[in-house]
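Re: the 133-residue chain
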Amino acid sequence: MSEENVQVVRKIYDAFAKGDVFAVLGQLDSSIEWREADNFIYADGNPYIGPKAVLEGVFMRLGAQWENFAAVPGEILDAGERVVVLGIYTGTYKKTGKAVSAQMVHVWTLQGNKAVKFQQYTDTKQFAGAVVA
């Protein structure tokens, strides 16, 4: 099952890279619990419950507020029901023109080929600095 979980997570990042948000949402369980890193600019809705909440609270804001935002996985680690992704965020905040290049760690929990939990860790200070003029 764990190799299947890694493949589900790979599909998520591939779809996100192509801008196919609906394919990403299709990999999320209907009751996913999504948590942005503490003090992250989108942590105000933690926990986001369900794909609609993730779409509105995270993805739509990313699309509206960032230019060329990307979550690029570098290494994907198989941990059974959990998949850990080490990577980098890049993008430019539209209002300030400030760019970020921040390390990220994502911890996905999967059941039945769907993501049921997501936890983000990243450099929240870098993002906070990017959104301030």
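Residues 36 and 116 are 14 Å apart (CA to CA).
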